[in-house]
Structure to design on (207 residues):
């Protein structure tokens, strides 16, 4: 059963009167796995959540004023979870060591590459040489995030669909599909009414 970060616990530990006013929160070592409450903390700047059971970074994507995030010894398996932190403009310190994702080859360079605003990763400050190496790293975060081709149809796909439609529209009636034959051969009652209405008006003009 998952253990949830509750409002009562957050207010008790932060000594704030409401979630909106929380700036720093330390809930180290509470076996928490559900920390979705942080989505309701728009002004939080420092989160200390080490030694818990957190498995995703998704909820932190709503903390736009977050500057420091400590998550040592949790259960974050996939390094691509850092994509949820890419939109945090003020994040400067991140601690992910002792998570399964930290065993990923080139872990440190990958994080630096996709979170270039970081000043410190785990217990070590980021060196200029690391930034240079990260910039040259041939690695793409793909796990869990749709590629450009998956998220929007390609122009060639649209072109193929349009050409099929044009071909169907220009086919002889006897060779066209049943749907096309119906669209070509069927005149709706509305079109008939409009046609006779126009003829009636033109007839009145000659009277």
């Amino acid at each position: 059963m998952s253990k949830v970060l509750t409002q009562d616990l957050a207010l008790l530990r932060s000594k704030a009167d409401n979630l909106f006013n929380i700036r720093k929160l330390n809930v180290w070592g509470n076996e928490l796995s559900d920390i979705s409450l942080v989505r309701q903390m728009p002004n939080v700047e420092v989160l200390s959540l080490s030694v818990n059971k957190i498995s995703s970074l998704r909820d932190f994507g709503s903390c736009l004023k977050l500057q420091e995030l400590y998550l040592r010894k949790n259960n974050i398996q996939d390094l691509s979870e850092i994509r949820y932190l890419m939109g945090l403009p003020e994040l400067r310190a991140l601690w992910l060591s002792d998570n399964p994702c930290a065993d990923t080859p080139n872990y440190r360079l990958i994080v630096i590459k996709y979170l270039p605003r970081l000043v410190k990763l785990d217990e070590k400050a980021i060196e200029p040489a690391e930034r240079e190496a990260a910039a040259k790293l041939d690695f793409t975060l793909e796990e869990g995030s749709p590629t450009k081709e998956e998220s929007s149809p390609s122009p060639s796909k649209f072109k193929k669909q349009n050409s099929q439609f044009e071909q169907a529209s220009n086919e002889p009636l006897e060779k066209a599909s049943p749907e096309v034959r119906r669209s070509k051969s069927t005149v709706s009652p509305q079109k008939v009414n409009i046609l006779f209405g126009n003829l009636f008006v033109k007839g009145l003009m000659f009277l």
Observations:
- The CA atoms of residues 113 and 155 lie 30 Å apart.
- The chain has a mean pLDDT of 79.
